[in-house]
Amino acid sequence: MLEGRNLTVTYDGFKALDGVSVQLKPGMVTGLIGPNGAGKSTLFSVLAGSVIPTTGQVYFNDEDITSRPPVIRARLGLGRSFQLSRDLAGLTVVENLLVAQPERQFEGIGAALFRRNAIRHRQEIMIEKARELLSRVDLWRLADQPSAALSGGQKKLLDLCRVLMLEPRFILLDEPSAGVNPTRIAEITEFIRSLVAEGISFGMVEHNMGMVAALCDQVYALAEGRLVAHGTFEEVTANDDVARAYLGVGA
Ligand SMILES: Nc1ncnc2c1ncn2[C@@H]1O[C@H](COP(=O)(O)OP(=O)(O)OP(=O)(O)O)[C@@H](O)[C@H]1O
Predict the structure, then answer these.
(1) Which residue among 7, 10, 42 is best mutated to probe the pocket of ligand 1, counting the most ligand atoms within 8 A of its Cβ?
(2) CATH superfamily of 1-81+163-250
(3) Which residue of 6, 78, 177, 236 is most buried, as measured by CB atoms within 10 A?
(4) Residue 222 near residue 38 (C-beta atoms within 8 A)
């Protein structure tokens, strides 16, 4: 389980997150929703490790990971999506997956030179893994194309495949439907469903309520840095405080 306990993030005295506790349970897809500026991205960053909370703790499978950097979280099995950065956009589709090797972060050049054969073998395994993943999302036929040429939806699928290269048990997704056309949203939804069936758990920040309704087993709604509701999609969207937050009337 991925758990945030009493999380507060303060920027120059302004509380972007104010005493928020969430439990992202295994086997589930957890949605984080709320109007613009609610604190969703801040909460995502705290759970993913790119922002250290001002107060509060993050636990992953009962281990305190509050100040563990993303690379250590990845080694523990907690993955996160990244938007395709400009650097990675210069690589081909398959190269984008091959750069996602966690070992690269920990290996010196000297060690690498002495272990050429092992490295070559590992590369073959990585290429096979990349081929399998890209085939699943119908991108293998584009393996040697520049990733910058992909559509918004294909980039999201590639982004997800890059996370999957590290074999995480838990994945945090930042707006998987952003910049994606409706047909592709259904495709991404199906892919995430199949990954859940294989035992991977998800947490996602998402504005598209159709996708949240289709995927999320539980939903946390935030407004102005605070938690306003928690429950099933139906329960949360029926909540008056949530409706008020989206209408901007103020709670
Ligand atoms: N680095 C920062 N410095 C100062 N204020 C910040 C910083 N990051 C976020 N904020 C502020 O914290 C609040 C919450 O921002 P956050 O991005 O978490 O909201 P959000 O719910 O993800 O919004 P959106 O849906 O628009 O992405 C906003 O008022 C934002 O301006």
Answers:
(1) 42
(2) P-loop containing nucleotide triphosphate hydrolases (3.40.50.300)
(3) 78
(4) yes
| Cβ neighbours of residue 21 closer than 8 Å, sequence gap 6 or more | 3, 4, 5, 6, 7, 56, 227
For the chain, the straight-line distance linking the first and the last C-alpha, in angstroms and rounded, comes to: 30
pTM of the model: 0.89
36 CB less than 6 Å from ligand 1? Answer: yes
Regarding an ipTM greater than 0.90, the answer is: yes
Q: Is 38 in the pocket of ligand 1 (CB under 6 A)?
A: yes
CA-based nearest residue to 3, from 78, 72, 105: 78
Q: Where are the domains of the chain?
A: 1-81+163-250, 86-151
* Residue-wise pLDDT tens digits, 147-178: 999 999 999 999 999 999 999 999 999 999 98
- 193 vs 174: CA distance, rounded Å: 16
Q: Would you say the CB of residue 48 lies under 6 angstroms from ligand 1?
A: no
CA-39 nearest atom, ligand 1: 18
Task: Spell out the residues 6+ positions from residue 158 whose beta carbon is closer than 8 angstroms to its own.
Answer: 84, 93, 96, 97, 137, 139, 147, 150
